[in-house]
Amino acid sequence: MKSIWISATAMVLLAGTGPAFSQSAASAAATAPELDYRPVPGMFQAPPGDTLGEMQGVATNSKGHVFAFFRGPRTRLWEFDQNGKFVKEIGKGYYGFQFAHSVRVDAHDNIWTVDEGTNVVTKFDPTGTKVLMVIGHRPDAAEGPVATPHGPLPPDGKYTLCRPTDVAFDGEDNIFISDGYCNNRVVKYDKNGRFLAEVGSEKKGSGVNQFNLPHGIQVDRQGNVYVADRTNNRYVVLDNNLKWKTAYTNVGTAWSACISQGPHQYLFVSNSNPNGNGPGTWDRTGQIYKMELDGTVIGKFGHAGKLAPGFQVVHMMDCRDPDRIIVGEIESWRMQEFVNQGGAAGNNRGSK
Amino acid sequence: MKRLATLLLSCAALALPAAAQEIATTPSQPLQLPADTFFGAAAGVATNSRGDVFVYTRNGDPTITLGGSRAFAHGGSSLYEFAPDGKFLRQIGKENYGFLAAQAVRVDAHDNIWVVDAYSNMVIKMDPQGRIAMLLGRKPEAVNVPAAPDHGRAPPGAPPASGMPSDLFEGPADVAFDGAGNIFVADGLHNARVAKFNAQGVFMKSWGGRGAGEGQFASPRSIAVDATGNVYVADRGNNRIQVFDNNGVFKKAITGAGDPMALCISPGAHQYIYASNSNPVDDLDHGGEIFKLELDGTVVGRFGRAGKLPGEFGTVNAIDCRNPAALYVAEMGNWRVQKIALH
Fold first, then answer.
1. Does A145 contact B37 at a Cβ distance shorter than 8 Å?
2. What is the value of ipTM here, to two decimals?
3. Which residues in chain B are closer than 8 Å to A198, comparing Cβ atoms?
4. Measured between CB atoms, which of B36, B41, B282 is closest to A159?
5. Chain A residues with CB-CB distance to B under 8 A?
6. Rounded to whole angstroms, how far apart are CA atoms B220 and B172?
């Protein structure tokens, strides 16, 4: 029995690096079937007289309410209801909001924000009125203005973050943080914020156990950890103790990862088009891929474009319901909703 | 099962020094902020004679202006007052010119409110209504971008970081008062001295300088005065509390309470010292506990540890012990103020 298990594991590991999954981004783009996810036009509107900004984070809670974490004149967190109606602003003037990067909602509907200006991850209660926990340390203003650092970075610390990017949770409420733009690592804390493990360090790299801008993170039901290793153009899969398992390299620029809930979990990833709309980039990038957790590409939807429903640098997706994808974009300052209209491989509702 | 319990108990006993008895506590967070108001790094906490609670917190963004001939900083910290039951009463000093990087708040014997700000380099005395009563130090007119490292100042020939003979501070950390109204400032984030002023704010003397010898400091981060006028200084970095007489003559060093960052001496006939062995912000796995000591340095007990749960502490920066059975503790790391009932 044990040997069967070992060989099955070996097969999975082989499959992760085998020819079936090492197709280039271009070939995945060429061969992946188009899925019928259609936009819901004008779904999310700012209240009159107000405006959204660079849309870094999007997330939903169990009621279907949508949270948008974005960079306006200050960093702001807005809550919309399931119909896209504005409900309220959360954390107005909060000390842990300076430069938005990600928002996630845990299994208990607590709202978590990741701010790469303050280097702080915050756990709010489900109403957004109480701060339950902060992880990381905001640099002290008393040190005065600090020049943008160049050159070697200080060693990463257990309890300090360096421009963190995203947060995720497993079934035991352990906390996983991708950290980030200056550190290049993934950190695991227990539910009380106590350090458990890390992989990577402040040094960037492209090998095993190394990252170059870990930009997004998710955990599947088995506790495996998926990391969008952005500059390495790969999605890294780790086990629950952050032991390296495999990497998917066939879906482009690796900006953001989302794993859906429900009995059959899917991995959605974004091959986001780069800033600046350079020549040819729109032909190669912009789509969202829907994958099996093992890395098999099921299909894709969306394309780069300035106007809705085009994507202008997708920064984050919510896929709690794999048939309702909410997409936050940086350069269009908007958030869009896409609904799976069924048909072929894209229809999950029929197979539930 | 019983054997296991015994084993666990004996392990716990082994882990603690015999003198440091664990004090049972009941933590709570009674302070209620209004909507859309949050604590940031909770630097200072103090109570007045009515039991009102004052919290000085870094909870905003100090702003440096662009498009002018002087790059000056403003904003960033707030002072709040709560009723004894935790109900929010008011914000004091909104738009105050000197509130940049909260460091400490203390209340004197006449219920005046004193604020120490680490970035404006000011010690601000307000009357019980919150009106400005006296100012020590002056906020720098402009800031350098990027900031030059500040290692403290001293007159030529004087010990490093021993400070100028004046009320110009370099990163003041805390303030305390004796029975005559004399003012003692721990000028300790960049300088390493204690400065004494009389009740009218006249500079009298200062002592210290950077070092580990008697009367020198690594970083004097907190200060308190007992009923007889002795001055207790948390010498953070040197793992000791130094005790001086009222004129700064070294009397003794108290060790055995970790590396103290926050100090409080309780009122009443029998005074106690509460001292926090505050964990650094990047380490939640060591220290963090608060010690209760006799004035002679005998450790009475200890409670808490570094962590994020209720009753644990994240880099304690201030302790209020007006009521020695119910302390208020301000945390820089956890962005909260806890009330800790001691049993």
1. no
2. 0.87
3. none
4. B282
5. 74, 89, 91-96, 98, 129, 131, 133-134, 137-138, 140-147, 157-160, 192-195
6. 9
Q: CB-based contacts of A20: which residues, under 8 Å, 6+ apart?
A: A296
> What is the distance in angstroms between the Cα of B152 and the nearest Cα belonging to chain A?
13
Tokens 């936050």 correspond to A328
DSSP letters spanning A188-239: EE-TTS-EEEEEEESS--SSTT--S-EEEEEE-TT--EEEEEGGGTEEEEE-
Report chain B's C-alpha Rg in angstroms: 20
Chain B residues touching A95 at Cβ < 8 A: 38-41, 58-60, 335
**A91 class by beta-carbon count within 10 Å (0-12 exposed, 13-18 middle, 19+ buried):** buried
H/E run at residue A168: strand A164-169
Token code pair at residue A229: 């290793």
- Which tokens hold the place of A174? 């352990």
Residue of chain A whose alpha carbon sits nearest to that of B148: A144
pLDDT tens, B1-60?
444 444 444 444 444 444 589 999 999 999 999 999 999 999 999 999 999 999 999 999
Residue type, position A335, single letter: M
- Tens digit of each residue's pLDDT (9 = 90 or more) over B274-290: 999 999 999 999 999 99
Tokens of A123: 């756990």
Count of CB atoms situated within 10 Å of the CB of B254: 23
Give the residue among A16, A12, A9, A36 at the shortest CA–CA distance from A250. Answer: A16
- Give the separation between CA B294 and CA B274, rounded to whole angstroms: 9
pTM of the entire predicted model: 0.89
B40 Cβ under 8 Å from any chain A Cβ: yes
Q: Return the amino acid letter for A254.
A: A
Q: What DSSP designation does B2 have? A: H
Q: Do A134 and B335 touch (CB under 8 A)?
A: yes
| Cα–Cα distance for residue pair B343/B338, rounded to 1 Å | 16
Using CB atoms, which residue from B38, B150, B285 is nearest to A95? Answer: B38
**B70 touching A, CB under 8 A?**
no
**If we measure between CA atoms, which residue out of A259, A317, A264 comes closest to residue A288?**
A317
Report residue B284 as tokens: 């939640």
Q: Verify whether the Cβ–Cβ distance A95 to B308 is below 8 Å.
A: no
Distance CA A148, CA A84 (A): 38
